[in-house]
Every structure is written in C-alpha cells, then in structure tokens.
Amino acid sequence: MNQPFTHPYLPNTAPDVKQAMLDATGAASVAEFYADVPDELRLSRPLDLPAPFPAEQDLARHVRGLLAKNRSTEDRLSFLGHGTYQHYVPAVVDEVINRSEFLTAYAGEPYEDHGRFQALFQYQSLMAELLAMDVVNVPTYDGYQATATGLAMAGRITGRRRVLVASDVLPAKYSKVADFVRVHLDLEHVPTVNGTADAAAIAARLGADVAAVWFETPSATGAVETALRAISDLAHEAGAIVVVGTDPIGYGVLTPPAEQGADIVTGDIQSLGLHQWYGGAHGGFIAVADDPTFIMEMPSRLFGLATTDVPGEVGFGDVAYERTSFAQREEGKEWVGTAAALWGIAAGVYLALMGPQGMADLGELLLARPRYAQQRLAAIPGVVLADGALHLREFTVNVAGAGLTAEGVVEALRREGIEPGVVVGEHTLLVCVTELTSQADIDRLAASLAGLATAADASTTPVTTATILEEQNALVSDAVLPLAPELTQEQNA
Amino acid sequence: MSLPLAPKPAIRRFHQASWDEPVIFELSTPGERGVFVTPIEPGVRDAVGDVVAALPAGLRRATPPALPELGQMRVLKHYLRLSQENLGADLNVDIGQGTCTMKYSPKINDQLIGTPQLTAMHPLQDPADAQGVLEIVWSLERMLAEISGMDQVSLHTQGGSAAIWANIAMIRAYHEANGEGEQRREVITTIFSHPSNAAAAKAAGYEVITIFPDAEGYPDLAALKAALSPRTAAIMVTNPEDTGIYNPAIKQWVDAAHEVGALAAYDQANANGILGITRARDAGFDVCHFNLHKTFSTPHACGGPGAGANAVSAALAPFLPGPRVVREVAADGAVRFDLRDTDARSIGSVAPFHGVIPNIVRAYSWIMALGAEGLLAAAEIAVLNNNYLLAKVLEIPGASAPYAAGRRRIEQVRYSWQELFEDTGISSEEIGIRMTDFGMHYWTSHHPYVVPQPFTLEPTESYSKAEIDEYVAVLAEVAREARETPEVVRTAPHNQTVHHTHHDDLDDPERWAITWRAYQRKYFGAGTPASAAEPAETAA
Question: What's the ipTM?
C-alpha cells in the first residue's frame, strides 16, 4: 500500500522531493552514497524486526497494551526503596521538563540557550543551599557515578590509594564504585556497629596512605550517620578527604554533611521531583567548596555567571572548561558527556516549589513516619529492629523471631497487594516510608505482617543477636574481599 | 480586495525571547509557598513525639537552607519564561549539531511514557507486576542485537559516554579473565572518534594511542598496524568518523586488532546512516554501543538523560552488566519475563537498576513505528539529506569539505571555513554565534580542531528539503556578512536573550561564580564559605 515508501517522520521520502535531491547531488540512486562500504560488509537482507505500526494510533494502542500489563505502585501498596524512592512529584515539575524547548534542546550556545544555562545554574545554586556548599556540578549520570567520581577525585588530590568505607553501602552502588575506581583506589570496608560507622575501628585504620573516608548517610539501611563530625576530624588529621554519598531529601531538617566536615558531597537527585520510572530516572551531584584544588578535579560541566557587553546583564558560560574531556580528550578529568541535565532542571524546579519550609516539613515527615512504622512493626511479637540507629525514610527489620523469612513475608504480602520492602538478608527486610505512605498504609502493613507472624510457628527459629548482626553485615557489599558464594548471589539481587 | 500580506523574506526575521527574568533567588518573598507537603497525621505525632527536637545535637540543621520562597504560579512562570529563552530541536532546523543526530523525537512517544503504569513503577516490584516494561526492555535488546548483528545487548547505561565506559570495562574484565590484564595496557583510537573513547580508556587505566587520518582523511591502516602490539587491549573507533567518512578498510582494522589478541570496540554514535546497510558484528567487532538519544530518537533533554545500549559478541556476553532480563516460555506456552543476576564475570552494576526506562520505551516505540523498511529508509534519507546539504554548502564561497575530495559522505560532514577566515578574519566560532541570530544552531567540532575553522553539520532524516535549503541560505547569508559587514558578525549576537558574553570571568578562580551562594559571598561578602577544605595541604 505504501509504495514508494513514505513515512511521517521522513519528509523527504516524498517521491518528487527525493528525486529532486538526488538530481542535485548528481547521484543516480542512494546506493552511490555508500560507495565506501565494501560489498562484503553489506547486509544482503532486510533487518529481521517485528512488523511496525506506521499509523500513530496503532502504535499507541500497541505500546499502551504492553504497559497495561504493569501493576504500578499506584495499584500496589509499596514500601520499596533501596535506591529508587517514591516521592510526590508536583505537577509544575512535569510541566516544565515536558516543555519542548527544554526536552528537545541539547548543546546550544549560552545565547540561543540562555534558558537552559540559567535553569541549570539555578539547579546548582538551589542544591548548594540545601547542601551548604559553594559548588555543585551539572548532573552526572546518577548517585553511583557521583560517589565513584568523588572518590576518584580524592585519590587524584591526595595521590593515595586506600579508601576506608565507613558505612553500609547499597550492593549495586558498591559494585559500580569498586569497578570504577579499582585501578586507582583500594576500598576497605570497616564493618558498621549498630547501623553506623565504627569510629574506633576507622581511627585504627587511618594512616598517611588513606586517600578518603567514604560515608553513606543515610546508609543502605537508612541509618543517619551520627559520628560524621568526629570521624571527619580524625580523617583530616591523617590528611584524608571525607567523601559522603547521600540523598539530599532530609536536609531541610538535618545538618548537611558539609557542616560536619565533609569535603566532597555526592549523591542522587531522584528523590527531588523525579518519578520512580522503574529505576530509570537518576541524576548525580558532586558538591565541593569553592576551592580550585577540588574544582579542577571535577569532570562535569559547571555553569557560572558571566558579564556581557551590556553592563549589569547576566550571562552564563562554562567554568574552567579546560578541565574537561571535551577540551582535552584523555588529558581531561575522567570524561564528560550526555548525562542527566533535564533531571537537574526538574530538581531545581522541585526545590524552588518546596522552599525552606517545604523541605523542613518533608524532612520531619521522613523522620516521623518511619519512626512510627518502626514502632508498629517492632510491636509484632518476634519482629525486631535490626539496629538502634536514627533512620530517615528507610529502616530494616528482622523477622526471624516471628518464624518468618524475609522472602516469605514478601511472597505472602504480595498476595495482599502489598510490597512490604526489599529483602536484604534471609530474615531482614528494608522498609521504606515516605509522604506517599500514610499512617493508614503503615497500619495496614503492620496488620498484615502481624497476621503472618501469628500464623507462623515462632518457636522453631528463635532470634539471636548474632543472627541480626550477621545479617546486618551482609548488607554491605565487600566486592574486594573474598565472598561466600551465597553472599555474592544476594548482593547481585 | 486582498489582505495586505507580504511574502515572507528568504531569511527569517528571528528574535529569541528575552524576558529579562531574574535569577530565582531574587524573586523570593518570605512566606510564599509553592507546594505543601501532606501533614503528619496526629496519630503519628502522638506516637513518635517531636522527632526534630529529638535529633542528637549536631544533627539538627541550625539554619534552614536559603531556598527562595515563591508562590506556585510564579515558579511556573519563571521556568516557562526560561524555557522560551531556549531553542529546542522542535523549534529550529537543528542540523548544526553534527555528531549528535538531532532527529525528530516523536511526541506520541513522550505521551506514552507519561502513564503511571510506567512512571510509578518501582524497579524492585514483583516481576509479575512488571511484565509490560520487562517485555519492552527485552524486545529492544533483541532489536538492537539484530541491528548490530551482536548476540547480547545491555541497556543499562545512561548515555553514550557511559556506554563507552561499559565497553572498556568489559574489555578490561575480558583480558583479566584471560590472564592478560597486566600485559595489555594500551587502547588505540582515532582522532575523529568521540573524545570519550580516549578519556574513558584513560579513566580505566589505559595508555591511549591516537591515530590521525591519512592525507585523504581515511583512518590510516598503516599507522594502526604500527601501533598494534601484544600490549594492545583494544581499538575503540567510530565509523563513519565525525567527518562522515566511512572507513572502507574497517574489516582490516578489526582483523589487525584481532591478530595481536586485542578486541575491537565500535562507537556507533554515528550509526544513523548505516541502519540496515551494514552491521558491527559483520565487520568482526566484539563490542559496540548505540546512543538511543541519537540514532533512536529519544530527546536530548538539554544534555541528558540519554541512553546507551551495549551490544556484544557471545564471547563478551558474560561480562555484560546485570541484572539481565530473560524471557521464559512455560510448558503450556505461557511467556514470562524475569530478571536474572549475572555471575562473577560480569562487570557488575554500571548504574542503578535497568537503565533509562523512559528512553528505552521511546526508542522501542520509534523502531516499532518504522520497522525494518522504515529504519533503512531513515538511514538512506539521512544520507541523501547529507549529500544534498554537502552539495549546497560547497556552493558557498569560502566553505570547503576537507578530505576525500569528490567522494560521497555518509550522514554528516565536518566542513571548514578556512578560506573565509583567511579572507575576512572571521572565525567559525563567530559565524556560529551569528547563526543564532537567525534562529539556527551551529557547532564547530570537538577539540582539537584538526580541520581548521571547523563546523559539523548532520541533517538526519527529519528535516525537509525546504528546511535544509533554509539552513544553507542562512549560512550563505552569514558568509556574505563576513565579507561585506564583518562587524555585524564580530559583534554578534544581536537578536538573542543576552549579548556577547565574556569568558574571562569563567576561568579565573577569584572571579568565577558557580552558584548564587558563591556569587553572594565573593562579590558581596555575604555568608561564609562552608566546609573549608582542610585537607588541601595534602595535595600531591
């Protein structure tokens, strides 16, 4: 029916136009343009792809049909976190980032793309206020990359190799960081105590060969680090740099790491106005002081204020562009490329909407509701909190005493339409509570779990402190240490 | 009687929006609110008390973050005005950003990804609840395997350079698994391959050797052979290169690499002209990557998120990032998609979860709108457009297309204004800035400028002949200005949101202002610098 082939996305398939363009080039056919492609490399058959849906309405029906097979966290009651978080996304955020002018722009000059430069400068500036640091990059890919780069920066600045890992780290993040830095740095995990850093053990391992002490706060279990200031002081005495991986969602009420001694603060912005998108909407930030020693080690673009030919007019441009691989290829710092700029604009809009009061209210809620959930779940016979740390948004519970396994809990509660959390140990569940999970939702989770606990034969598996500690340590991915096979399995989950 | 309409002039009378919008901090009015957070329930408060007051000393923020306070509509208006001061590909003839394939991103695909059935999906939900998205990931992997000829595909990476990193990380793991990690310390690339190939290889610990083209602009096979040795880990090359020249000896390049035990990695950022024409695996490559935001139409989003796709041969498949999406067929024929962990050979996680899902769905939808015939047509039209554009640009006095004289190009060309520069002193950068006055984007080249006074145009398949003609007419007009009224070009821009910007502010640590906070402190003495960098004295 469609011969010669035309398509709405391909205006110059219109036969007369195509012929006129061929004539202008002096070519008899399109084949002439491929003269440099040897015959032996030419594909001699059509690509074997599914039959297409050229009519837009048919395409829409097909894709919507596929997506209709999904059951989202709007259909289920979700307590899932572990790196991707469900937070409310204000409508204005989506309105702004869906604008064609932003969505389809790329690499324009600060003239025709003034808006992009200003929006990203504002993102940097809004994050800087939240983090109490003077310099924030245009977003890199995600929080994993941001922390990996932050540690690599510390290695380059100090010329040292050892990194003491002071916190429990998400296994996937640890995997990414370890592979990224391994030719330059050696990671050593210092086991946590009761969910947070073991200051004495870190002090004992600090030395003149330590490039960085790496904290995660909140940690992989949602524990907020309480000894950051004290350990930072020790690290600085040893000439080490303090690198923090964090989620900025709590800094409306919590003291930001920079005010507790952190030198390089990194993390993910998904919590700040980005949908969950099946884990597909992450952006990374790297924040440092306004110090060239640190800034000149950053690979990302940095947009700064600039003067113009008109006195008083605000322009923008790239700060210290010569650092980058765009300018210097392999002599630049790591590399820079297409990463997550639009997500940065989204996070900026989010922070502008929330303001100081919104971030304070949300920070308080992310302390209060998880605390309430901890109380409710720990009131179930046999269910205990896995540690006594202060938690933001996420915490772990151990269900061994209730005669349950974490997998068993997940399986059973999924049948009730509840995702109760992420399995992080045989008996340990990571539970995430946000502004989208209400008191009633938490009560429902507690009631369902209590029902399971009652049904189980609690007498068969008495819980011990050792069980809990063992599982707590298993939360950490020590990729550089020899791992038991079953542990490796778990970490890849 | 007729309406007094005059025909539009040949050159568009454009002016960029100029709202004179302050930096958002200047708009703050204490007490205004943009959005409320849902209140903490009384029952929760009763149970937990005042959690903020109960924070340990030192953990409770002493002063609130100095975020601006604005009403909701003011935030919206501010950002919409900024958006109007931005020239997206939907608004201009975006053929001036060569190497980046600024093709049309279909609007239907943006609509499709906006459903809560995608936006509200958590990656650790029961896979039974994620069958739709998993099927799309799996299907797109298979499509890209067919398009590249490779065996397995991962969609985990968030951009082209991230995919380049995954390429070199897999290559590194492969050689280490074969006991050759210590021996193979060098990576060879070409100067007309994207800089991230060199930069990512360096970041992975390799020495980088860069091959320059021969006199005709073709990648120099003799130079490659001289550089290859048992120390070579891989070649990492683009083809066609950023000149739009296809390396006819690409198979010999790959074979030569294999002869010394090296792997061959193919940066397919420039794949748009060869879809359905020739495939990476058929030339012998071991690994390649695509940029879904280039060849497969996902929007460029001001610089991301894009999406990368790594495609590998069976020998490299065990090293792919994980977890993998698998398709299982039960005895009764029921199809189920699931997630499977990779084993210890995998490079592990390269990013959170499963990649840039919204762009994976967009790319899937783009392919499903075109099919095999449409992909081939897109490639052929992109190449036709490019060779048409080449013929038109060469008609402009002072413009040239260095290398491969008289030969055809694939999907883009790196041109030169060297002759115009010699005649007028007007540089390619100056021409680019003047182009913006006509609502056109224009880009020079990656660094270093091997082609003098470079500019790189890639028309893709998306722009009509009339639009290409319009772009060329503006190029010719600016070249004419360079000769006749050079001051107009030199003092550009004239029709933009802001005027000519001074770059010396941006390279001086005493003056640069990377955030509003730093600007206030440096220029007005406000506040104090946070987190003084105590360990700086340890700098090596």
Answer: 0.96
